[in-house]
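idk why but the lab printer keeps eating my pages so im just putting this in chat instead. protein + magnesium ion:
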Amino acid sequence: MRHAVTRGRAAIVCEPKGAIVSTSAPPPSANDRVAASAVHATKWYGHGDTAVAALKDVSVSFDSGRFAAVMGASGSGKSTLMHCLAGLDRLTDGRIIIGGTDLSTLDDRALTLLRRDRIGFVFQAFNLVPTLTAKENIELPVALAGSKVDPAWFDEVVTMVDLRDRLAHRPSELSGGQQQRVAIARALASKPELIFADEPTGNLDSASGTTVLEFLRHAVDHMGQTIVMVTHDPAAASWADRAVFLSDGGIVGDIADPTAASVLERMQALDPRMAAGHERTRG
Ligand SMILES: Nc1ncnc2c1ncn2[C@@H]1O[C@H](COP(=O)(O)OP(=O)(O)OP(=O)(O)O)[C@@H](O)[C@H]1O
Ligand SMILES: [Mg+2]
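predcted complex ->
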């Protein structure tokens, strides 16, 4: 398998130890359909003199069963693209299609249901509920939908993120890496079609970040998930199947099978500011 190779800053073997074979998840999807697309997506914030075009006529598709990284300098529109793709925000112009559904045709309630049932989120700041245990946090979105997490699936996910002995702990009793693993388990709990992760390793040290990336990679390779991850870090992007580059609200690059070196090289060519601080990842 292509990902059983050395990747990233620490040249860690990507294939997680003790391969966990999914029994209850859908089989890994063949790369034969689009999970999400933006079509001529434009997003303006504000009005008049203070208006900002955060996305300018962006057209991009993300394939099912694949792991994509979205990169770009601060303010280039990464989070805006992700929020619009995920139905957390609406475009000013253009369309977002999720698994064949045009989000512009949905009213707010239908959009909320689509987000709840078909999309998982992982944020840089974890966004766990402090008063709930890890287990309760993982189950929360499914519980809010009036449903229960399939026990076999819950087991598989918790084993995958290695949290079995932390389920009764509250977020304040967990390390940052453990909290992000709870957030990943929460995102997976409803078996979403698509997971969006906005800088999931941004608040983590390098070892915890690598673990999180290993789990995201595993979810794609062995659980049939589709992941779109925003990151600033070339080493993090090297775990993805593809890196899409944004600059000033537009797509300016798209590379397959990124490595930390190829990503850094592209960043330097596109915008030296974007590459600043990442030179250490070279090689
Ligand atoms: N709610 C908002 N109101 C006004 N302007 C906004 C809003 N959200 C984002 N912007 C502007 O849109 C542009 C794109 O912002 P966005 O958050 O998508 O960037 P980003 O690439 O995610 O940056 P970062 O790496 O810093 O997270 C920026 O110029 C930003 O200031
Ligand atoms: Mg952002």
